[in-house]
Every structure is written in structure tokens, then in C-alpha cells.
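Our preliminary data section would be incomplete without showing what the modeling component actually yields. Below, a chain of 151 amino acids is followed by its predicted structure, encoded as C-alpha cells that our downstream tools consume directly.
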Amino acid sequence: MNALIDDTHAEETDRRPGDRADELNVLIVALDPVVPTHMSGTKVLVVAPALNSWLRRWLSDEDGARRRAEERAAVVAVRLEESGVHAEGRAGDGDPLLAIADALSTFPADEILIAARPGRSSQRAEELGSRARERFALPTFPGGESLLNAA
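Predicted structure:
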């Protein structure tokens, strides 16, 4: 086979140096500062969308939303780190689907978790989870449930 088109080792190149083969990469979309449980054996990227009102977004007044998103991402990442999970946090775009797309361009996620509190946020998480599953073709779990919890 031509070495230029041989993709038999493509899966190996999708992971970054230092990633363990048995480690699951999980992208957490933090709509709220909720920390999922049962995350051992994972590498986590926490992305908190800079959620804002329609009017503030239209006026390009996103500083407060970005600051709140950075704080939300940091809280979740620090709590995960304290429980022994390798986690990094960052603020994302105000549109949660764009925040996911941006994160996936640099983080090879095996699954997506939508972290939200029960109530109105969980409805938003369900809708976002459905849209993300369709768009990115990755297992997507709203409300903090994941493949890890099924084991």
C-alpha cells in the first residue's frame, strides 16, 4: 500500500503525546458549575460557553459573560483536579455549539458531557446534547451522565 495514503495508524496520531491508550478524553460543556462524578481514568477539557443575553450579545457587551465563563470553567477544572482527574478549563464562544466545535479542533474528545443543574438548565442541556450529538457524531450526555457511569 502507498505510504502516503496508508491510514492504518490514524487512530494513534489522533492522540497527543503523553496520552494513555486507556484514558478517555471527555469534553465537559459547563453550562453551570456542576462537577460530574466517576471521572477517574479520564483526561478532561472543561469549556464554559460565555452565555449572554440576546441584547448584550447584540451590543457586543461580552466582557461580563466571558469573565463568568472563565470562572465557571476554572471552578469545575479545579474540583476535578482535586479529585485526581487531569483537567483543563477555558471559556468558550457564547454559542455553545461553536464553543464545542472550537474545543474539538484542539482536543480529541471521545465523548461530550453537558454539565447543568436540574431545572431550566437541564432542559437546555438536553437540547444542546441532542444538537451536539447530531453535529459532531460523538456520544453526548446531558446532565453529567457518561459512558463511565454505565460501567
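Residues 1-20, 145-151 have pLDDT under 50 and may be disordered. The first strand starts at residue 24 and ends at 30. Preliminary results of this kind motivate Aim 1 of the renewal.
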